[in-house]
């Protein structure tokens, strides 16, 4: 079943300082994960869930993103002349995934501000937000489940994942109540990057959201929080506390997630995805085993 009416927003205006100097001129979203830029995995995930209208929030020096999703006729002609149809198909796929729009964030005022910039494009309907740092394995279902819950309940839906309590300070943490459905919880509160002793749980918000249009007026009046940025978590907290609204529901994800926002985890993501591929894994796995034995 398609979900053509729902749009997606991908915030991609971050500076990528953890990957300098690689990101001095290249957007962090364009860093390759095996042989595709990270942002293509995210666009593919949205398209696979039936979303064909995607708004990418970009910053300065982000033209590489729009160039990647444009067609390149001269390259397509060259590959056709060479008879390299396999590469031609991969090149053309990125241009045919969805109807992709771009909007500059302007000042980097945080995730909440980036989402707010999407207001005019999104309109009055619920919409998906997918962060490019979190790659969800295409073999594991998440976004379609979140869309179904939103359509059924009208609630805001966030993706949650159990993390080591010592790492919860890196995430927004959720206080939750159990429901009758396995791995579906009601979110009663949210704290942005709490210390381990102050965290309400070890359930961390990961980068997938289904938000109502009602989030926009909340973000418009949300004051800057941690880091001097407008935090999306603060707006979600208000939605969760609204006793007259549909509230916030969390989907606890237990599948494969690859964090490309950290240098070590980025390398792990490449290795994990490459070893699972039919065209690379058979050669890579024995080498990795041999290499690990030398350490």
UniProtKB/TrEMBL annotation:
Pfam family, one: NTP_transferase
GO MF entries: UTP:glucose-1-phosphate uridylyltransferase activity
Enzyme's top EC category: transferase
Keyword Nucleotidyltransferase: yes
Keyword Transcription in annotation: no
Superkingdom in the source lineage: Bacteria
Source organism of the structure: Microbacterium profundi
Catalytic activity as recorded in UniProt: alpha-D-glucose 1-phosphate + UTP + H(+) = UDP-alpha-D-glucose + diphosphate
SUPFAM superfamilies: Nucleotide-diphospho-sugar transferases
Family of the protein in this entry: Belongs to the UDPGP type 2 family.
InterPro entries attached to this UniProt entry: GalU_uridylyltTrfase_bac/arc, NTP_transferase_dom, Nucleotide-diphossugar_trans
Keywords: Nucleotidyltransferase, Transferase
Domain (Nucleotidyl transferase) ranges: 7-274
E.C. number: 2.7.7.9
CDD domains, sorted: UGPase_prokaryotic
Record protein name field: UTP--glucose-1-phosphate uridylyltransferase
């Amino acid at each position: 079943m398609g979900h053509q009416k729902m749009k997606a927003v991908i915030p991609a205006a971050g500076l990528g300082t953890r990957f300098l100097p690689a990101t001095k001129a290249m957007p962090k979203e364009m860093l390759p994960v095996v042989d595709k830029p990270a942002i293509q995995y995210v666009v593919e995930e949205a398209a696979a869930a039936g979303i064909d209208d995607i708004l990418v929030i970009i910053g300065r020096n982000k033209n590489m993103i729009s160039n990647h999703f444009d067609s390149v006729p001269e390259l397509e002609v060259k590959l056709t002349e060479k008879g390299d149809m396999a590469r031609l198909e991969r090149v053309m796929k990125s241009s045919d995934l969805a109807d992709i729009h771009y909007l500059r964030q302007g000042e980097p005022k945080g995730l909440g501000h980036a989402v707010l910039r999407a207001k005019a494009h999104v309109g009055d309907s619920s919409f998906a937000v997918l962060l490019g740092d979190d790659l969800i394995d295409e073999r594991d279902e998440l976004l379609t489940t979140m869309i179904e819950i939103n359509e059924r309940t009208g609630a805001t839906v966030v993706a949650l994942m159990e993390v080591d309590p010592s790492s919860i300070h890196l995430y927004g943490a959720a206080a939750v109540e159990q429901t009758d459905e396995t791995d579906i919880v009601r979110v009663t509160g949210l704290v942005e990057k709490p210390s381990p002793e102050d965290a309400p749980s070890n359930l961390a918000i990961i980068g997938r959201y289904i938000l109502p249009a009602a989030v926009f007026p909340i973000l418009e009046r949300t004051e800057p929080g941690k880091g001097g940025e407008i935090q999306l978590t603060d707006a979600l907290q208000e939605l969760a506390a609204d006793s007259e609204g549909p509230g916030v529901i969390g989907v606890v994800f237990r599948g494969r997630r690859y964090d490309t926002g950290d240098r070590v985890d980025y390398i792990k993501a490449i290795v994990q995805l490459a070893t699972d591929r039919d065209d690379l894994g058979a050669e890579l796995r024995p080498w990795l085993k041999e290499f690990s034995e030398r350490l």
